[in-house]
Design brief:
This protein is an alpha+beta fold. 28% of the residues lie in helices and 28% in strands. A hairpin with a 6-residue loop joins strand 7 and strand 8.
Length: 159
C-alpha cells in the first residue's frame, strides 16, 4: 500500500510505504531488453489513485515480432507481443507519460486476466474429464509419444 499522498513516479522523491515513513525514492526496476529490442518508451512504476509502484513497463520494437510490451513485476519479466499496426505506435506517441503508463497497465492486466481465465477453464475441463474417466491415452506407433484425448460426455438426450 502506497502512502505517497500525491502522484509519484519511481525514481522521483516522495515515495512513502507507510504514513509514518519519511519520503524516499522507489528505485525503477525495468525489465531486461533482448538484443533484438529497440526501446521506444520506458515507463517506471508510479501511483496516482492506484498503487502501481511494482510494475515497470517498456514498449519496444522487436525485430521480427513487431511491437512488444515488456513488464516487470515482483521480479518477474513478461513479454507481450502486440500488433505491428503503425496506428498503435501513433497512439502511444500521442500520449503523455502518465497516460501511456496507465494504458500499458490496462493492456497488461487485461492480458493477465485473459490468461488466468483461460487457464482456469482448461483446468476445469480436464478435471471434469478426469473425474468422469473420459481421458484416453494411446501410444503413437513407432514414436516415443502418446496421444491424449477426451471422450465426449454421454447425453441421455442425444439425438
Amino acid at each position: 500500500m502506497c502512502c505517497c499522498g500525491k502522484a509519484v513516479v519511481n525514481g522521483d522523491p516522495g515515495y512513502k510505504w507507510q504514513p509514518s515513513d519519511s519520503p524516499s525514492i522507489h528505485q525503477p526496476n525495468p525489465p531486461d531488453l533482448a538484443p533484438s529490442d529497440t526501446l521506444l518508451y520506458d515507463e517506471p512504476g508510479r501511483c496516482g489513485g492506484l498503487d502501481s509502484h511494482s510494475y515497470h513497463y517498456r514498449f519496444v520494437s522487436s525485430f521480427g515480432n513487431g511491437l512488444t510490451l515488456l513488464v516487470r513485476h515482483g521480479g518477474e519479466d513478461e513479454r507481450i507481443d502486440l500488433s505491428s499496426v503503425p496506428s498503435l505506435l501513433e497512439t502511444f506517441k500521442a500520449l503523455d507519460s502518465t497516460s501511456r503508463y496507465w494504458l500499458m497497465n490496462t493492456i497488461y492486466h487485461a492480458y493477465s486476466e485473459g490468461l488466468s481465465l483461460g487457464r482456469n477453464r482448461a483446468n476445469s475441463y480436464w478435471q471434469t474429464a478426469a473425474a468422469a474417466g473420459r481421458i484416453k491415452t494411446r501410444k503413437v506407433r513407432g514414436q516415443n509419444a502418446v496421444r491424449v484425448s477426451v471422450e465426449p460426455e454421454c447425453s441421455l438426450f442425444a439425438s
